[in-house]
């Protein structure tokens, strides 16, 4: 008989989600679904706004990684207006991205991965979530 494996909740993501894995009679993965039910809707409230507001808005899409969203929106504006940032502006952007890179790695380790390493993957999800709350 086929088997269903459900991982619910998925922790370490913004919002709620679950994974369902369906195994065939031989125990091999037949199908898998990753389900995230939240509708973020950012694109809807961006309609009709001035393009210059997008770097400020895009940075709020993700609480873990706002800098890359901000940078992508800024580069889109550069392209939209056919401008080339000055060498100083490019260095400041690189400095911001390097700072993000360091921040992202320590956030990932201490808040997203460490609870699984410290408590172990078999620990109760509520206990792992509590560790980072």
How would you summarize this macromolecular structure in one to three sentences?
50% of the residues lie in helices and 15% in strands. With 133 residues, the chain is α+β, with helices and mostly antiparallel strands.
Question: What does the model show?
Answer:
The structure is a single chain. With 133 residues, the protein is α+β, with helices and mostly antiparallel strands. It has a domain at 1-38. It has 5 helices and 3 strands. Helix 4 crosses helix 5 (125-132). The longest helix has 33 residues, at 87-119.
What characteristics describe this protein?
alpha+beta, about 130 residues, 5 helices
Rg, alpha carbons? 20 Å
How is the main sheet built? Answer: 3 strands, antiparallel
Mean pLDDT: 84
Structural class: alpha+beta
The percentage of residues in β strands lies in 15-25%
List the helices and strands and how they pair.
Blueprint: E1 3-7, E2 17-23, E3 29-36, H1 42-46, H2 54-58, H3 66-80, H4 87-119, H5 125-132
Antiparallel strand pairs: 1-2, 2-3
Helix pairs in contact: 4-5
